[in-house]
Amino acid sequence: MEIKGLLTIASKNATEKGFHNYNIDYEMLDKIKCLLLIHSEISEAVEALREGNQEMFYEELADVFIRLADLCGTYNIDIEYEIKRKMEINKNRPHLHNKRF
Q1: Which end of the chain has the smaller Cβ count within 10 Å, N or C?
Q2: Are the C-beta atoms of 34 and 71 separated by less than 8 Å?
Q3: Residue 40's Cα: distance from chain center in Å?
Q4: What is the domain-level CATH number for residue 47?
């Protein structure tokens, strides 16, 4: 099979499985946008490490928190509560959460 045929099959399958349903939830899209911006800041932090730029690494970490604060503030997420709650859950998790790494 050629790539063109794979594209057709992949598109047909995605459509049949509902991935091209365009009932747009704009709040969900905004949250996704915020998460992608957080992800981009993390990627920039990784790039700073790759370049050996410690100062830029710290700046990008700050950007991660700023973007996260924006998301939490916009959607009234009590992140302090959620962090404390999750840390309690993590206390009882097994070593490496039963994963290799």
Answers
A1: C
A2: yes
A3: 9
A4: 1.10.287
When divided into structural domains, the chain yields a total of 1
Structural domain boundaries, residue 36: 23-98
What global pTM score does this model have?
0.80
Q: Is residue 6 part of a domain?
A: no
Query: In whole angstroms, what is the distance from residue 41 CA to residue 27 CA?
Result: 21
Q: Is residue 91 part of a domain?
A: yes
What pLDDT does residue 70 have? 97
- Among 71, 9, 16, 82, CA closest to 38: 71
Q: Are 67 and 41 in contact (CB under 8 A)?
A: yes
- Tokens 């995605």 identify what position? 14
Question: Which pLDDT score is estimated for 99?
Answer: 95
Which residues of the chain, if any, have pLDDT below 70?
none
